[in-house]
Amino acid sequence: xxxxxxxxxxxxxxxxxxxxxxxxxxxxxxxxxxxxxxxxxxxxxxxxxxxxxxxxxxxxxxxxxxxxxxxxxxxxxxxxxxxxxxxxxxxxxxxxxxxxxxxxxxxxxxxxxxxxxxxxxxxxxxxxxxxxxxxxxxxxxxxxxxxxxxxxxxxxxxxxxxxxxxxxxxxxxxxxxxxxxxxxxxxxxxxxxxxxxxxxxxxxxxxxxxxxxxxxxxxxxxxxxxxxxxxxxxxxxxxxxxxxxxxxxxxxxxxxxxxxxxxxxxxxxxxxxxxxxxxxxxxxxxxxxxxxxxxxxxxxxxxxxxxxxxxxxxxxxxxxxxxxxxxxxxxxxxxxxxxxxxxxxxxxxxxxxxxxxx
Amino acid sequence: xxxxxxxxxxxxxxxxxxxxxxxxxxxxxxxxxxxxxxxxxxxxxxxxxxxxxxxxxxxxxxxxxxxxxxxxxxxxxxxxxxxxxxxxxxxxxxxxxxxxxxxxxxxxxxxxxxxxxxxxxxxxxxxxxxxxxxxxxxxxxxxxxxxxxxxxxxxxxxxxxxxxxxxxxxxxxxxxxxxxxxxxxxxxxxxxxxxxxxxxxxxxxxxxxxxxxxxxxxxxxxxxxxxxxxxxxxxxxxxxxxxxxxxxxxxxxxxx
Lengths: 358, 256
What we know:
Order of helices and strands of chain A: HHHHEEHHEEEHHHHEHHHH
Oligomer: heterodimer
CATH superfamily of the largest domain in chain B: P-loop containing nucleotide triphosphate hydrolases
Number of domains of chain A: 1
Structural class of chain A: mainly alpha
Order of helices and strands of chain B: EEEHEEHEHHHHEHEHEEHHH
Number of domains of chain B: 2
């Protein structure tokens, strides 16, 4: 068996071990934050693919997360029952795209089915990423960072300023994601363990897909673009299209993360689109070692969990900002890498040598 | 029969006429060299042919079709591969992986099939690796397969870059100073290698400063000076050409 599948097995073992630990120590409440961490990790691995492997920076992925989350939230909460007579609504409900469910007061809500809303959300993110990615990815370095930052800001202001989307309050009372009979994505304590495994199962599936991609022809093409773009182009790799494909792929991962976390949390607010969220995602990918899927995933697990448990208190954003600065200054290849021990030794012995010098 | 035919090609950078109304042909199956003093426009001409730069005027036809105005990857797909004056290997990839990138045009797995690792993708992957190893055998670098490409000695990196271009099975191979930075022994080996590549049926067009290499292996030599073609002839005729001698040795020497 290939080494990468052994790594995946080890990861599955780690995820299961964490769950067993919370069971043994009777602290299952940790699973809530760990499940949320999993959904953020779906975004992180997609972003890692874009930043680390394709070499393109993005400070706008919180925007794609929000596009996914808001569309899912809106479609599954916006009541269409007063439009029942209209042919389009009738058609949609006949085909199962719309579903009715009882509301809090005994009435009936007619909204999009969670699967349908999820598909619409991901397709929308795909189209938006494709449309803006074309021109934006012609930019390089800090110009690209600025352009994606602008995109993230636009999404944030739209979310904040649109009454239909709840403005500053966001959208709440989002129903659970009905996956299959008996399986739903929701924050109910009764389905906590199942949701933990659904979320991390999804992360695992995402990792397997991306690892396959990295070791495929397209992955080699991306690495070539990252290493020497002119030579990649001269070998027949359509560099612009490859960058765009990766951008779209990472945007779809971000949107899926947004959809599922919104169902899990039962709502979404504009703060999910804030620039600091994008900075946080980029900081996690950077500290994980950029072109290191496992490193990014591991740092996502640790940092998102700590942040969601409130260990950073009111300094949450400051912590991630500092991480980004420190990593860029002192460890641009990230913390998670094989040579880290060697580097530490050299750092320590280098320090000693300086002290004993004249 | 000519494989590559360039007509009245011009390229200007601001006030500098880098390539000035140049026309020439590269015959099918030949080794043709492009020489000229520094700044004569040799690399610019290469970049125009490979699509990195777009010409201001003129036309380039290759294998019966026009190629000017196409993107570099589209020109590569037509069968023109190149190496670079400053070696452009892919860092953090092994020699084998570098050469496998050269097989890009002869494989087709995309993003989706790559992510799903479909059976045809796995088959294709094996085939790409096998062909890449065959190229390495041909070049005598099979033992370096798993070494990191950019960690190799300079001369070996040149050979790897050549291998990457060869892996794409080009009709025309553009070599930008293949002997730059090589010692004498390596230069002799490189000449022999270029000869063997021609024997495979691949047409070679190369820029080179090393006259021993150029005179030894080329069938035709094109000379540029200040962007203009001053000669296009057989090596022996070039050595006697007074215009070429003037450009290379200066006015006084030529008069003697």
